[in-house]
Write a structure and sequence with these properties.
Layout lengths: L1 H6 L6 H19 L9 H25 L2 H9 L1 H21 L8 H29 L3
Length: about 140
């Protein structure tokens, strides 16, 4: 608190900080838990190295594309609702990743790309909401 007074910045509220870090942990743990086993799993082997690379690249691409839209959504529906939408999208993405191997077919790569991209959009919404709530919590 001494530093925030010296710099003129308002102190960050502890509940806001703890809730934001809990959301980060939940979203990123869920989003990245598949990295260890997916390349060696049956769907990963079916997609091949290039397909697995594309699936993993869909997440950062989606985060980059969703970044400009996050502040607009925050202005429209608010911080908490945006964070909730992000958590729901990220959770849905992880759930769908678990179900996709049950329905293999010719469109498996496209399905994995879309689902992984959905997770990237969700994590962007959560991250932007949490960082915004931390930055304005001391006001």
């Amino acid at each position: 608190r001494r530093n925030s007074k010296a710099s003129g910045a308002p102190p960050v509220r502890l509940p806001t900080l703890l809730a934001s870090h809990a959301l980060y942990l939940a979203v990123y743990t869920a989003s990245f838990q598949m990295m260890a086993y997916f390349p060696a799993s049956p769907p990963g082997l079916a997609l091949g190295p290039k397909g697995v690379g594309a699936v993993f690249s869909a997440y950062p691409l989606a985060t980059a594309l969703a970044a400009p839209l996050s502040p607009l959504l925050i202005n429209c529906v608010g911080l908490r609702t945006t964070a909730l939408i992000g958590v729901c999208l990220a959770s849905l993405s992880v759930f769908m990743l678990g179900l996709l191997p049950l329905a293999p077919g010719p469109g498996l790569l496209v399905a994995f790309l879309l689902v992984r991209g959905l997770g990237g959009v969700g994590s962007t919404l959560v991250e932007t909401s949490c960082l915004t709530s931390i930055s304005i919590s001391g006001r």
